[in-house]
C-alpha cells in the first residue's frame, strides 16, 4: 500500500518554504496554464511572500477543443465521451506538469503538491428540481470540472488537490468566483481601491476596496470575456482559427451600436451580484444567434467582430459603473487573462472607463496577465493544505467559508 505521503499534511504546515503547482484550464478552452509557485510562510503559518518560479501554457489541440465544446452542450454531450474525457484530459494536465517541472529545473521531489481546477463542462448555480430521497423534488445546484486527480497523481507522483468548487456550492454558494481570495493576497492595497478584471472565456471582476477585510471584497462574472468573439471567429473560419489575433479583424470593422444595445438588454447584465455565468449562456448558440442578427443587418465578419468586441468592453465597464462605483472608490483596474492581448478590446475599455480609473495589468504588479489564475489556484491549494478556509462567502453567496478541495494523496 502506498502510504508514504500521508504524513505530508503535517509536514507541509511545519515548513516555511512551499512549492505548489497551480493548474488552470479555463472556459475559453484554449489549453492548460501551469504555474510553479514558491510560497514563504512565517512561524505562525502566515503568508510572507509569493514568487512565480515558472509558468507554461500547453495549448489544447483542435481535436481536443472540439471534443470539449461538444461536452459543454446538453444537445451534443454524450456520457461515454464525457467519461473518457474526464480521464483523458488528465493526461494533458500531467503532461503540462512534466513540461513545467522540466522548464523550471526544480527537482519534482521539491514540489509539495498540485492544485488543479479541471475543465468546467457545466456550471449550474441556479437550482433545478431533482428527485428527493423522501419523495417530491429538491432544488439542486451543481457544477462539473472534469479531470481525474488520481490519474495526475499516478503520472506525476505528486499529491493532487482538485474539485475546488464543490464544497462552496454544497454550502449554498455559487461555486465561484474562487480566485478573488487569491487576488486579495496578491493585489490588495492599503491606500487605494482596485479592480482585478480577468478577461478569459468569461469576464470576471474582483473588487478590492482600499485596506479591505475579507468581508469587504466582492467579485462577480461581468459576462462574456473572449467567449463570444472566439466563437464568432471559430464559426466563421470553420474551426481553423479560434480567436481574433490582437483584435486585428475587429479593428478593421465598425461596430453596430443598435446591435450592441440589443445585446445589452439582457437579464444577466442587469442582475445584481453575486452572480456567475458561463458557456451555458454565452457559448456557441449565443454567438450563432448574434451572427444571424448581424447577417440580417448585412454586417461583414469584421463589423460583427467589432460589435462583439464592443459588447464585451461595454459589459466590463457597465458592470463597474452599475455595481461597483456606487459603493466603492476605485483608482485602478488591473486587467489580466488572454483578452489583454486583444488590443482593440483593451482600447475600447480604456476609452469607456470613467475618469480617475487607471487601466493597468496584473503584470505591472509582478503577476503575468496569463498566469494569475494558475497562481491563484496554487494559493487556494496552499491554504487548504494549511488547514485554512479558502473561500469568500461574501463573493460566492455561501452560508459560511469552507476549506474547498479534495486531496488525492
Ligand atoms: N494574441 C491574442 N490576441 C487576441 N486574443 C488572444 C490572444 N491570445 C489569447 N487571446 C484570447 O485569450 C483567450 C484565452 O484566455 P485565458 O487563457 O485567460 O482564458 P481562460 O483561462 O480559458 O478563461 P476563464 O478565465 O474564463 O476561465 C483566447 O481564447 C483568446 O480569445
Ligand atoms: C464555473 C467556472 O469554471 N467558472 C469560471 C469561469 O471563468 C471565469 C469565470 O467563469 C469565473 O467565475 C470562474 O473561474 C475563475 C477562475 C474563478 O472562479 O475565480
TrEMBL record:
PANTHER family: ANHYDRO-N-ACETYLMURAMIC ACID KINASE (PTHR30605:SF0)
Database matches in InterPro entries: Anhydro_N_Ac-Mur_kinase, ATPase_NBD
Signal peptide: none
Residues binding ATP, per UniProt: 26-33
EC class (word): transferase
Catalytic activity: 1,6-anhydro-N-acetyl-beta-muramate + ATP + H2O = N-acetyl-D-muramate 6-phosphate + ADP + H(+)
Gene name of the record: anmK
Pathway linked to the protein: Cell wall biogenesis; peptidoglycan recycling; Amino-sugar metabolism; 1,6-anhydro-N-acetylmuramate degradation
EC annotation from Swiss-Prot or TrEMBL: 2.7.1.170
One Pfam family per UniProt: AnmK
Record protein name field: Anhydro-N-acetylmuramic acid kinase
Domain of life: Bacteria
The family this protein is said to belong to: Belongs to the anhydro-N-acetylmuramic acid kinase family.
Keywords: ATP-binding, Carbohydrate metabolism, Kinase, Nucleotide-binding, Transferase
Species this protein is from: Paenibacillus xylanivorans
Family matches, as CDD domains: ASKHA_NBD_ANMK
Amino acid at each position: 500500500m502506498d502510504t508514504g505521503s500521508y504524513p505530508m499534511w503535517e509536514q507541509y504546515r511545519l515548513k516555511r518554504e512551499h512549492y505548489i503547482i497551480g493548474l488552470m484550464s479555463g472556459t475559453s478552452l484554449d489549453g492548460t496554464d501551469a504555474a510553479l509557485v514558491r510560497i514563504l510562510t512565517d512561524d505562525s503559518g502566515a503568508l510572507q511572500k509569493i514568487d512565480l518560479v515558472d509558468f507554461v501554457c500547453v495549448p489544447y489541440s483542435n481535436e481536443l477543443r472540439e471534443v470539449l465544446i461538444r461536452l459543454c452542450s446538453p444537445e451534443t454531450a454524450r456520457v461515454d465521451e464525457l467519461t473518457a474525457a474526464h480521464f483523458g484530459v488528465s493526461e494533458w494536465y500531467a503532461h503540462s506538469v512534466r513540461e513545467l517541472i522540466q522548464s523550471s529545473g526544480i527537482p519534482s521531489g521539491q514540489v509539495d503538491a498540485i492544485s488543479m481546477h479541471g475543465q468546467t463542462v457545466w456550471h449550474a448555480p441556479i437550482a433545478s428540481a431533482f428527485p428527493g430521497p423522501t419523495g417530491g423534488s429538491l432544488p439542486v445546484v451543481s457544477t462539473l470540472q472534469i479531470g481525474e486527480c488520481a490519474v495526475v497523481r499516478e503520472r506525476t507522483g505528486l499529491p493532487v488537490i482538485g474539485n475546488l468548487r464543490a464544497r462552496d456550492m454544497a454550502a449554498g454558494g455559487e461555486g465561484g468566483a474562487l480566485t478573488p481570495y487569491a487576488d486579495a493576497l496578491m493585489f490588495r492595497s492599503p491606500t487605494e481601491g482596485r479592480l482585478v478584471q480577468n478577461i478569459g472565456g468569461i469576464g470576471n471582476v474582483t473588487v478590492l476596496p482600499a485596506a479591505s477585510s475579507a468581508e469587504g471584497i466582492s467579485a462577480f462574472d461581468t459576462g462574456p470575456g473572449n467567449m463570444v468573439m472566439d466563437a464568432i471567429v471559430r464559426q466563421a473560419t470553420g474551426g481553423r482559427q479560434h480567436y481574433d489575433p490582437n483584435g486585428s479583424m475587429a479593428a478593421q470593422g465598425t461596430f453596430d451600436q443598435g446591435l450592441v444595445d440589443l445585446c445589452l438588454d439582457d437579464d444577466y447584465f442587469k442582475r445584481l451580484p453575486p452572480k456567475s455565468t458561463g458557456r451555458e449562456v454565452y457559448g456557441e448558440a449565443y454567438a450563432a444567434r448574434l451572427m444571424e442578427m448581424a447577417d440580417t443587418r448585412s454586417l461583414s465578419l469584421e463589423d460583427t467582430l467589432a460589435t462583439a468586441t464592443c459588447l464585451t468592453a461595454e459589459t466590463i465597464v457597465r458592470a463597474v459603473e452599475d455595481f461597483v462605483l456606487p459603493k466603492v472608490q476605485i483608482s485602478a483596474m488591473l486587467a489580466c487573462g488572454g483578452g489583454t492581448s486583444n488590443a482593440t478590446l483593451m482600447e475600447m475599455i480604456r476609452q469607456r472607463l470613467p475618469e480617475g480609473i487607471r487601466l493597468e495589468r496584473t503584470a505591472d504588479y509582478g503577476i503575468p496577465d496569463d498566469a494569475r489564475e494558475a497562481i491563484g489556484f496554487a494559493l487556494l491549494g496552499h491554504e487548504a493544505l494549511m488547514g485554512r478556509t479558502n473561500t469568500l462567502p461574501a463573493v460566492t453567496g455561501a452560508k459560511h467559508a469552507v476549506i474547498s478541495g479534495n486531496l488525492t494523496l
